[in-house]
Amino acid sequence: MITDLYIGVDLGTGSCRCAVVDNKVKLIGFEEGDYKSNNVSGKWIEQDPEAIFECFVEVVSRAVAKAKDKYPKNRFQGISIGGALHSVMALGPKSEPLTGIITWADTRAFPQAEKIKAISKGKLFYNETGCPPHAMYPVFKIGWLGENQLDIYQKTSKFISAKEYVVFRLTGELMVDTSVASGSGLLNVHTLDWDQNSLAIAGIGSNKLSTLCTPMTIIPELIPHIADTIGIPATTPLVLGASDAFASSIGSGAVNSWQATCMVGTSGALRVISEYPWLDEKGRSWCYCIEEGRWLIGGAINNGGLAFAWLRNLVNKNLPNYEFSFDELMNLAEKVKPGANDLLCLPFFSGERSPNWNEHARAAFYGLTLEHNLSHISRAIIEAICFRIRSLLDILSDSPIKINQVKASGGFTKSKLWLQIMSDVLNKELIVPAVGETSCLGTTFWALKNHGVINNYQEFGDLIPNGKIFEPDRIESEVYQDIYQKYLQLYSKVSDLYKKP
Asked: What is the CATH number of domain 253-501?
């Protein structure tokens, strides 16, 4: 019997992950690989586009080989790619890279974003694109290139994302799906077309961008020698797919508007799928269009696991004969009661995005005494990250969307303590999907739909099994509601200090 197989690839900011599934979304093969970001100069964060493509080919070929070992009689019926948001690079007249891939973490365009924020155009920009004016968005990075690297800017034939580059190398086509385009700050979330005001901010015409397509756009053939290296027929259709953020949501089974996805990895996010766009009056959240009738609404924080990694690295630098693991720090935190003995942390080790969009925010501990130790500090950081996610939930609570359930994804799902604290702080049921690789699993949706296996998101969500379920502890949740209010008061007191010096 021949088994139909489908490939989903998560092309993230720091790694590439590939899942091969059958028509029941059962994981048949999985592989992953990392690529580096380079601090080119100050706040310039770039990646080598060729290194990312090579990693893509290697990871997908290994996952395909695993699937073939399990099912020698197979047919690969489609491949789809989910791409990280907010990256941009310049291609020359012969489609050669003129720059590295500038990632979301690159903040060189901070002055360009602040300029728009400071004038009336900032509100217009948000209302049309769903993107708060911030340096992470490619529209401002393109503007920065025009002001600071005019020679490259003028030579550029196309400005594209990392995903677009991989699709181009795989198929020869320059196409961008609406969800990745929406995360650039260049797409109008109401018309689903390039936004003229944003194009003016970047100083470009739409001819400098890839062909705008829906996630279900099909490229019928792959470049033969690339397909051969991967180990699949060149006639395997590539279904364009969407962003890794949206793929992670549906890959966790959160396909309804009453289900949110909470992700904590290096950074963090809380997002929900909506059938209509919603823009916060205060501009605290983003709203990205996926396709007609589907928008992704939420917010993202800079300091997720990054904050906890800072503590681990700091401690281990001063322990020459011992190295703390993340699990050991978690075990220490578990010994401490909620509130970490009145120790609060503002975890802004790398500025902050949602909900306050303050690049100048800095980390701080409040209430530190001689009685506190590493256990308390560990717990305070974990709680602080959960408070940041709670602040995103508060924004969505102001919308017509009513969230009853939260699906968890990202590295924090490996810690029972962290998951329970998150459930208590949010005061919501928290469900961990049985399969942790939600982004690449979710990306298989488009390949499966193209082959007629499933018809819609609901059918796909029904195929995603749940793992562990965490219910908020009534007593500890009440404790955290009080602590969270103190946390908000603390932020309010020090926020003026975060303004420009």
From this structure: 3.30.420.40
